[in-house]
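Please decode residue identities from the backbone states below.
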């Protein structure tokens, strides 16, 4: 009898065993303390963890494991003082720097989803002292848009260069009459370099969405939903704020730049050459004509002339007399939209396969309680 008791006590004192897969850790033993769980979490990067106690799980410490999903299964849950299993979603990373000059800000990162909790127990001691928090974390603010580039100031020129048409120019042509090939040419002469307008600023990035809360399902040994007055907190995370647009660039200042517009009017000139016209009858119907340097014809007694056309520029003048350009160029503008390019969805926490949890709970099978699926979900 004494030997059996000693053997039993030794079995209870054995350290929990654990297996580690890619992202999941499974811990099992007769009696498991949360302190053992914490050591495993900190030594391995996991996204989900299952804890199986053949006899009991002792909640003797708090857990802080952002976004990690947990399953707890034991005949007795023993809560020592007030304990919190904090599985709130991972905090979203904020944009620490402003967007580059003239560029739109990036959308804020979404908040993380809280971890899921699935638990099965036979009895809970001090259940009202245990808290599960599976709230989602807040989304980050959108990045601030980049500031607009300030326009460069002018470089000085000379008025005489414009008057003498010895500086750079641009030509604009306007057709006045298609039939007569009339055309005006506008020459814009500029001496010096004009100041640049201010650059537009970038838009702010869209706010990051708050993370979703994780699910919590606590069942008794009869597979009935019963949280036994456990405190459960599962709030969705708050959205961040839209990023502010950048500051528009200032326009540059014009000083000592000269410009003028000179017009050349292109008009076709019509003339008949010297000489007379000789008309003669042919059968009283068709007449011939001889023109010095020009050939025409008459059909039905009507004479057609193709005149000699030659080009001449006249009435050339300064439409805008050369003068100094002064004052500031326009400032840049601020976008009226929020940048949504690159919006990210909130990541999900690992789902828990409740069927696996039930099948791996050896203490549950030993109770010989008829198994029902009431309250359980295949993929929780």
């Amino acid at each position: 009898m004494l030997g059996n008791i000693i053997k039993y006590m030794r079995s209870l004192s054995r350290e929990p065993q654990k297996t580690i897969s890619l992202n999941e850790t499974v811990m099992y033993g007769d009696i498991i303390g949360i302190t053992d769980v914490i050591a495993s979490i900190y030594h391995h990067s996991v996204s989900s963890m299952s804890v199986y106690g053949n006899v009991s799980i002792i909640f003797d410490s708090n857990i802080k494991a952002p976004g990690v999903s947990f399953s707890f299964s034991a005949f007795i849950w023993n809560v020592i003082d007030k304990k919190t299993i904090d599985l709130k979603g991972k905090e979203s990373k904020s944009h620490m720097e402003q967007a580059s000059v003239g560029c739109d800000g990036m959308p804020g990162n979404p908040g993380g989803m809280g971890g899921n909790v699935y638990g099965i127990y036979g009895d809970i001691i001090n259940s009202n002292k245990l808290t599960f928090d599976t709230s989602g974390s807040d989304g980050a603010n959108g990045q601030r848009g980049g500031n607009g580039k300030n326009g460069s100031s002018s470089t000085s020129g000379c008025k005489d260069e414009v008057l003498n048409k010895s500086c750079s120019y641009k030509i604009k042509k306007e057709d006045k009459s298609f039939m007569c090939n009339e055309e005006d040419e506008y020459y814009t002469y500029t001496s010096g370099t004009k100041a640049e307008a201010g650059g537009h600023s970038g838009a702010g990035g869209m706010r990051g969405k708050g993370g979703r809360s994780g699910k919590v399902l606590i069942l008794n040994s009869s597979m009935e939903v019963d949280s036994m007055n456990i405190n459960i907190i599962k709030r969705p995370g708050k959205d961040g704020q839209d990023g502010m647009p950048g500051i528009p660039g200032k326009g540059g200042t014009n000083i000592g730049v000269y410009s003028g517009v000179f017009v050349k009017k292109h008009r076709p000139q019509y003339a008949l050459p010297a000489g007379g016209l000789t008309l003669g009858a042919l059968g009283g119907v068709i007449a011939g004509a001889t023109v010095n340097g020009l050939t025409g014809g008459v059909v039905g007694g009507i004479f057609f002339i193709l005149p000699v056309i030659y080009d001449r520029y006249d009435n050339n003048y300064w439409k805008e007399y050369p003068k100094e350009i002064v004052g500031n160029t326009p400032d840049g503008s601020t976008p009226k939209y929020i940048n949504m390019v690159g919006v990210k969805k909130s990541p999900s926490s690992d789902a828990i396969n409740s069927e696996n949890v039930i099948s791996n709970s050896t203490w549950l099978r030993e109770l010989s309680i008829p198994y029902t699926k009431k309250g359980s979900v295949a993929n929780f």
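Observation: Residues 283 and 300 are 11 Å apart (CA to CA).
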